[in-house]
Design brief:
Layout: E1 8-11, H1 15-26, E2 29-34, E3 49-55, E4 61-66, E5 80-85, H2 88-99, E6 103-110, E7 116-121, E8 127-132
Parallel strand pairs: 1-4, 5-8
Antiparallel strand pairs: 2-3, 3-4, 6-7, 7-8
């Protein structure tokens, strides 16, 4: 397997809901392991996500977990996820789903550099940048 870079997002108890939402947006195979699966079945966080990974047919990989007890949660401002490519229909479809019930900071429209670009924060506080290449 070659090296790859992908985002890893930490949530404060909503990792399952967020990753299931991202699976609805992008499709693909979602694997989820809870703290209970790892042997902490009696702990209060047993049903929380220790690790999850979404791998899509488009080659996207997104990982996430719920923060372990005692760690600080810093939502939103510590990560953004960038989707780039030249498939207008595919990327606009992702944009529509990600921006629904979220906050649009930059509308998805043609920018001065020629690409169609938009930025939004989804309903889970994650910032997404979508860039559709001009060609």
């Amino acid at each position: 397997m070659s090296s790859r870079l992908n985002p890893y997002i930490s949530f404060d108890g909503t990792a399952r809901q967020a990753m299931e939402f991202y699976q609805q947006v992008f499709g693909g195979n979602l694997q989820i392991s809870t703290y209970g699966d790892a042997g902490a079945s009696d702990a209060p966080e047993a049903d929380k996500i220790m690790h999850s990974m979404l791998e899509t047919d488009s080659g996207f990989t997104l990982m996430a977990s719920d923060i372990p007890p005692g760690m600080e949660h810093r939502p939103g401002n510590n990560i953004s996820v960038s989707l780039t490519g030249d498939s207008d229909e595919e990327l606009r479809g992702y944009w529509a789903k990600l921006s629904a019930d979220g906050v649009v900071a930059v509308p998805l429209e043609k920018q001065m550099w020629g690409d169609v670009f938009g930025m939004c924060t989804d309903r889970f506080g994650i910032t997404w940048m979508v860039d559709i290449s001009a060609g």
